[in-house]
Amino acid sequence: MTRPSTGRAGDFTQGKIPGVITGMAVPLIAAQLVNVLYNIVDRIYIGHIPAVGAHALTGVGVALPMITILSAFAGLFGQGGAPLFSIARGRGDEEQAGRIMGNSMSLLLISSAVLAVLARMISRPALLALGAGENTLGYALDYLHVYLIGTPLVFVTLGMNPYVNSQGFAKRGMMTVLLGALTNIALDPLFIFVFGMGVRGAALATVLSQAVSAVWCTSFLRGGRAAIPLRRRNMGLRPDIVRRIVSMGISTFMAQGTNSIIQAVGNRELSFFGGELYIGAMTIINALRTAFFQVIMGVSSAMQPVIGYNYGANRRDRVLECIRFATAVGVGFMLMTWLLLELIPEPFVRIFTGEQALIHIAVPAVRIYYCAIFFMSLQLVGQSVFTGLGKARHAVFFSLFRKVVIEAPLMVLLPRWGFGAAGVFWSEPVSDVIGGLAAYITMLVTVYFPLRRELRAAEAGDRLPG
Fold this sequence. Notes:
The protein is about 80% helix and about 0% strand. By secondary structure, the chain is mostly helical.
């Protein structure tokens, strides 16, 4: 049943756009910053395990590509449905929105169980192919095997929390992440050091933390406070909805899946041209990237339901304002991040390790890797606009273009062109510049300028007499 969009919870056609996005973004950023602690706290504690910290940290870094590809499937079925959910709500079609959410939940549960079993079966040969050596394979297996036990919990948390945020309950979505992260922070030192479980303890803390988050998220969606609750009757898979979810989510999947490819290629090249400690340096770099990207990621995540809702409600003026605001915030913050990491990288590296050999490698690597980080904000804004408006093909293309077409080949070629292990780190800024400009300019040409012309034409028509 379709009804007008105004006057409902999470009505994003009301209020000034900066205030609406900021109101959504602040708890999202807080949640994502806290979510960073899942990985960062693990790596901080693991890196400081007496006598074996550097090798243990590298082992976890080797396992990251497999963990990343699992998370990509959660994004495929969860974040793939959330923009469709927002557009349906903007049109007033709450029944369809409910079916989309229910189908996402079923896809998450089924895929998580299947993928966990498959990943366990291929874990040893896969980790060896990803660059694990004799000093790190055991740590990588220990971490991954425990982590896989909680795969369904991870999928539900990552895949269903966007539906909480898409209904305008950003603070509740923040609590989903906050509760899990605080649980992780409390359990990590207990399991790693007190119980002497090492990297297995870090993984177990993550699994239990995700269980807390999953219960919190689903209890809200199943309860009475949700604008559109999760109902069992909507969880029966419908081929038409599944196709739309997959079509929309493929961009998120490609973005995260190609990250896994990049991590795998980078680890192998670093192992060959530098050694295992260079993989440890990349593990630190990825942790910093995760932390510093959360502001622009939070703004992008907040923009998507707002832009999708207003697009569905035919509010082109507000769509354009969303794009302008997200661009200004993203570029401004990334410029500040660039200055910070270029001027004082060493204190950030020392958070993760006290071993001088690893610090000596990681500090110049951080400066290289992040020297063009501000261009990445353009990529994130461009892809978020495409995703929020349901333009899946554009988002997919730029996910593949930057990582697969530019960065992965450069990771292989630059070390062989005389850059050595540093060539792996230089591949990032080159791809940031090319990929960021390509995505943003295409978004301007295909979305922003056409919508602006439509808006001006409509305004001119309204001014015509009689």
